[in-house]
Write a structure and sequence with these properties.
Layout lengths: L23 H19 L12 H20 L1 H5 L8 H26 L5 H9 L17 H18 L8 H31 L2 H20 L11 H6 L7 H19 L9 E3 L4 E3 L5 H11 L3 H14 L1 H24 L1
Antiparallel strand pairs: 1-2
Helix pairs in contact: 2-4, 4-7, 6-7, 6-8, 6-10
Bound molecules: benzoyl coenzyme A (BYC).
The site of benzoyl coenzyme A has 32 residues, from helix 2, helix 6 and helix 9.
């Protein structure tokens, strides 16, 4: 049930979205549309919701955008765990604002995915039934206050690295949503770094140890956020050809490592990787092997917190049913009142 197995909507469990069968006449009629679409992609133009697009392009976007939206919403849970335990009023206000931002990102992204003809209810059903994926990173526990800083620094840092290129994604509603998301993620990353710097410069030895422990636990899962190695990434090639992804998983991961190592030095923490070192010839950092067995285990629903996270989302959905019912009843009453007034006029 908690497998996170691939499912865009209305599918059969197959990872490759299937286009409906087309007759030869349909294909002939679509040829000029396909040509126009291809030319727009080649020219680096944006595709708008009203434009014709191939079914596979549409499904790939629904898959990625809905997964992204789910990640934002599920991503609120590990941090929500610490709102009532933030050490100061300032830190509590910052954390509250950050978690609220994530709710907003989720809503913007669901709205962007809805422009592709999939309803929010369908997307949430896929999440709640365990069919849809969300980022592996949120299936790890948050054990100490330092985890809040490290999530901001590393997790939001990885998210920005991944998402800035998405501001130029070929699908315009997604690209537009990402511009605002990235601005807010940048504040999230900086607040995390600043919280850690405060602990590392003014903290007690126990607090410094807590920061290092959090870095040790989150480093490798953060690298996994970028997805499987390029050679094992079934979607990358097509997504890059369509301009959905602008950079490959490995290229983004490398950029993240290179940027983060410098920041770790400023903080005074080390990464839990004895193989991490500067490679003069390649002008980038070498780093150790990622545990892909762990990655696929977490993606497959067997991470430390998969059941807890999904359980929390399903519970919130069930407990909110009366609010949705009341809102629907209210809008029906309003519509009936307007209709009665129109008949009377
Ligand atoms: N976790 O062919 P690939 C945030 C799946 S939240 C789980 O490379 P693709 C934040 C992948 O879906 C930020 N699954 O796929 C919130 C695919 O499975 P299916 C989240 C993963 O799509 C709160 C299969 O593995 N960011 O910022 O080309 C607090 C093969 O992968 C993961 C986004 O969602 C993973 N890590 O590339 C703090 C960004 N990686 O669907 C922060 C948007 C891969 O074929 N998404 N899979 O069955 C993307 O950029 C891309 O979807 C990915 C994967 C790079 C993640």
């Amino acid at each position: 049930m908690y497998t996170q197995a691939m499912d865009t909507i209305g599918k059969d469990g197959n990872a490759e979205p299937k286009a409906p069968l087309r007759s030869a006449d349909d294909l002939l009629a679509e040829a000029p549309l396909q040509q126009r679409f291809d030319a727009a992609i080649d020219a680096g133009d944006f595709i708008e919701a009203k434009d014709w697009m191939p079914e596979h392009y549409r499904k790939t976007l629904v898959r990625q955008i809905s997964q992204h939206a789910h990640s934002e919403i599920v991503g609120m849970l590990p941090e929500g765990n610490w709102i009532s335990r933030a050490p100061t009023l300032k830190r509590k206000a910052i954390l509250l604002a950050k978690v609220q931002d994530e709710a907003g990102h989720g809503l913007d992204l669901y709205a962007a995915a809805e422009t592709l003809g999939t309803s929010r209810d369908q997307m949430l059903e896929a999440l709640h039934s365990g069919k849809a994926k969300y980022s592996s990173i949120f299936n790890y526990p948050t054990l100490s206050w330092a985890d809040m800083g490290v999530i901001g620094w590393l997790v939001d840092g990885a998210a920005i690295m991944n998402q800035v290129p998405l501001c130029r994604c070929s699908y315009a509603p997604y690209a537009r949503a990402m511009i605002r998301v990235c601005r807010e993620e940048s504040f999230h990353q900086r607040q995390g770094f600043e919280a850690l710097l405060t602990m590392m410069t003014h903290g007690t030895p126990a607090q410094k140890e807590m920061v290092q422990d959090a870095v040790n636990r989150w480093w490798w899962p953060s690298l996994m956020m970028f997805g499987p190695a390029d050679a094992d990434s079934p979607n990358s090639e097509q997504s890059m050809r369509w301009g959905i992804k602008r950079l490959s998983n490995d290229a983004l991961r490398q950029k993240f490592v290179d940027a983060t190592v410098e920041q770790a030095r400023t903080l005074g923490v080390t990464m839990p990787d004895p193989d991490l070192k500067w490679n003069e010839e390649c002008q980038q950092h070498d780093f150790g092997a990622i545990d892909w067995a762990e990655f696929w285990q977490v993606v497959g629903g067997e991470g430390p917190c998969n059941r807890e996270r999904l359980g929390a989302r399903v519970k919130a959905w069930d407990e909110g049913a009366w609010v949705r019912d009341a809102a629907l009843a209210h809008s029906r009453k309003q519509a009936a009142r307007v209709a009665t007034a129109q008949v009377a006029a």
